[in-house]
Amino acid sequence: MENFYVSRTLDARGLSCPMPSVKTALALEAMNKGEVLEILTDDPVSKKDLPVWAEATGNTLLDVKEDSGGIKIYLKKA
Amino acid sequence: MTDKAQKKNAVTIVLFSGELDKAIAAFVIATAAASMGMKVSIFFTFWGLNAIKKKGGLIKGQDWMQKMLNVMNYRHAKRLALSNLNMMGMGPMMLKMMMSKKKVPPIDEFIKTAHSLGVKFYPCEMSLTVMGLAKKDLIDECQDIIGAVSYLSFAKDSEVNLFI
């Protein structure tokens, strides 16, 4: 996995479907092309939904990490 | 709008039912689709109008039958029943508590989120006329009142069309 610089972090922990996607859409809207958004979530569905969301919207999924602290998803704005 | 790419990117939802659970389903799908950049239109018809009625004003309508219907069906976003296990209002109360525990937004917040994401709300003209209601009885987020033909013109250019 290439290194990337996180421009913004979205704390979506505690939110459930469909709010993580909604908040991600709003966060990315305010960012510039090529910038990376880090999404923190504890919703297991988001792990599946956000990559699908990224594909549907044409944004790039860089990485999905999961550890004891929760799930981290990295998206690059197209 | 005959372009295939554009057709793929639109959703219409007909909300016919007036219950909380079904309205939640409609708004979850609407906000998710809007977050994906899809063009979303919700058509509120018959009991579905309950979700977009303004609070207040118990007696509405012109004749006694309309007035009776509107009194017996006094509903707005915060006062919707459940389609199952309503238990004279205990059901919705418990569901709302369960939803807030899991941080699922309440329906009135879903309506605001959907509106701010560009979801369009279209009330059905015929239902309003039959029930003796007018645009002033509905929340301000609503677009123009439309008929079945206008709905179909949206639906035939959308790839996802749902009836709830």
Description:
The complex is a heterodimer of chains A (78) and B (164). With 78 residues, chain A is of the alpha+beta class. Chain A has two helices and four strands. Chain A has helices at 19-29, 44-57, and strands at residues 6-11, 36-41, 60-67, 70-76. Chain A has a four-stranded mixed beta sheet with strand order 1-2-4-3, with helices on one face. In chain A, strand 1 (6-11), helix 1 and strand 2 form a beta-alpha-beta unit. The longest helix of chain A has 14 residues, at 44-57. Chain A is globular. In chain A, 28% of the residues are buried. The mean pLDDT of chain A is 92. With 164 residues, chain B is an alpha/beta fold. Chain B is 41% helix and 12% strand. In chain B, strands 3-2-1-4 form a four-stranded parallel beta sheet, with helices on both faces. In chain B, helix 2 (20-35) packs parallel to helix 5 (107-116). The A-B interface holds A 14-19, 21-22, 24-25, 53, 56-57 and B 28-29, 31-32, 34-37, 102-105, 113, 117.
Fold topology:
The complex is a heterodimer of chains A (78) and B (164).
Chain A: E1 6-11, H1 19-29, E2 36-41, H2 44-57, E3 60-67, E4 70-76
Parallel strand pairs in A: 1-2
Antiparallel strand pairs in A: 2-4, 3-4
Chain B: H1 4-8, E1 10-15, H2 20-35, E2 39-44, H3 64-72, H4 90-101, H5 107-116, E3 120-123, H6 125-131, H7 148-155, E4 160-163
Parallel strand pairs in B: 1-2, 1-4, 2-3
List its salient traits.
heterodimer; A: 78 residues; alpha+beta; 2 helices; globular; B: 164 residues; alpha/beta; 4-stranded parallel β-sheet; 7 helices; 12% strand
Tally of separate helices of chain A: 2
* Helicity range of chain A: 25-40%
Low-confidence stretches of chain A: none
pLDDT average of chain A, as an integer? 92
- Summed up, the helix count of chain B is 7
Helix fraction of chain B, binned, reads: 40-55%
Strand content of chain B: 5-15%
Biggest sheet statistics of chain B: 4 strands, parallel
SSE order of chain A, one letter for each helix or strand: EHEHEE
Structural class of chain B: alpha/beta
SSE order of chain B: HEHEHHHEHHE
Strand order within the widest sheet of chain A?
Answer: 1-2-4-3
What is the distance, rounded to the nearest whole angstrom, between the alpha carbons of the first and last residues of chain B? 25 Å
- Cross-sheet strand order for the largest sheet of chain B: 3-2-1-4
